[in-house]
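Re: the 130-residue chain
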Amino acid sequence: EVQQLNQQLEEKNGEIQQMINQPPYEKEREILRLQKSLAEREKAQATSEVLRRSLTDEAQQLQRRLASTAEMCQHLAKRLEEKQREKRDSGDPMPAERSNQLLNDETSLQALIAKLQDENRMLKHKVAHV
């Protein structure tokens, strides 16, 4: 292991000697190449950081939207249950107009719940993807 390390040290010393013995323009060229490489890495790292922040913000927005949608679904489900309970509990025959209104309300609530559930699933998928 010591021999291996000594060999690596000799190789590195050889590389250093080559760099020292190079003409000045070669050294400058190598410095410029390394500076360019460093600048490209810094640019890539900055871009990655911006993308990471953007995705984090988007994920947080989607989570808030998902929570809001889930809350709305729960609220609408409660309202629908209450209306159905009122409909069952009331033994009085309703006027046709009121009956139609309740049916329309129930249908629109069910449609809205279905729409919100679809949106909820879509948001969950987006959050999982992000």
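The CA atoms of residues 31 and 37 lie 10 Å apart.
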